[in-house]
Amino acid sequence: MKSGLFSGPAGVIIMIAFFLPWLTVSCSGSQVATLSGYELATGTLPQSAASFFEAQRYSEERGGETLLYVVPVAAIVALLSLYLNLNHGLAASVAGKLYYMTGVAGLAAMLLKYFNWQSDLAEARREVGMIINLEYEPGWWLTLIGLFGLVIAGYLAHQETEDRSVHKQSASAR
C-alpha cells in the first residue's frame, strides 16, 4: 500500500507544521511578528505585535483566518482514513478519495489566503506608506509539502485500486 507511505507522514507533517511559524511580518526592515498557522487561524496575535496589528480589532472583526482550520482538519481526516484503511478495512478507493479531497481542500485554502494576504499587504502599503513585508516561514512550506503529499497519496490509492481491478479481470478471463 504505497498511498499509506505518503498519507501517514503527510498528515503528521501537516499537524506539526500548523503550529510552527508560517509568516514573519516586518515593517521598514524591523520584524513585527512571527505567526504560526494556529495563531493565524484563531486570530491570536503575540502581545509584541498588538499595537501594530491592532490585535483587538483583528480578533473581534475578523475572528482570525478561520478558513485555515481546513488544514489541520485535512491532516486529521487523512490520518483517520489511513487508520481505518489499515485496521478496519476501509476501502482503498474511499481512503484515496479522502486523501485527495482533503489535500486539494487544504491547498485551496492556503492558496486563497496567500492571495488575500498579498491583497491586504498591497492595501496596507498604500494606507500606511511604509514598507511592509511578509516572509513565508518553514511551517508554511512544510504544510504545503504535506498537503501535496496527501494529493499524491490519493493518486497512488486510485492507481492501486485500478491495478487490483485489472488483475482481477485478467484472472477471471483465464
What characteristic shape results from the CA principal axes?
A: elongated
Strand order, main sheet: write it out. 2-1-3
How many discrete domains? 1
| Assigned CATH architecture | Up-down Bundle
CA distance, first residue to last residue: 26 Å
Taken in chain order, the helices and strands follow as HEEHHHHHEH
Low-pLDDT stretches are: 55-61
Average predicted local confidence, pLDDT:
82
Q: In total, how many beta strands?
A: 3
Assigned CATH class:
Mainly Alpha
Major β-sheet annotation: 3 strands, antiparallel
Question: Structural class, from helix and strand content?
Answer: mainly alpha
Oligomerization state: single chain
What is the share of helical residues?
Answer: over 70%
The Cα radius of gyration reads 20 Å
* Number of H/I helices: 7
CATH topology: Butyryl-CoA Dehydrogenase, subunit A, domain 3
Strand content: 5-15%
Secondary-structure topology with pairs:
Layout: H1 2-18, E1 21-27, E2 30-36, H2 37-42, H3 50-53, H4 55-62, H5 70-87, H6 92-128, E3 132-136, H7 138-173
Antiparallel strand pairs: 1-2, 1-3
Helix pairs in contact: 1-5, 1-7, 5-6, 6-7
Description:
This protein has 174 residues and is mainly alpha-helical. The chain has one domain: Butyryl-CoA Dehydrogenase, subunit A, domain 3. The protein has 7 helices and 3 strands, in the order αββαααααβα. Strands 2-1-3 form a 3-stranded antiparallel beta sheet. The chain starts with a helix and ends with a helix.
What is the compact description of this entry?
The protein is mostly helical and 174 residues long. It has a single domain (2-173), classed as Butyryl-CoA Dehydrogenase, subunit A, domain 3 (Up-down Bundle), CATH 1.20.140. It has seven helices and three strands.
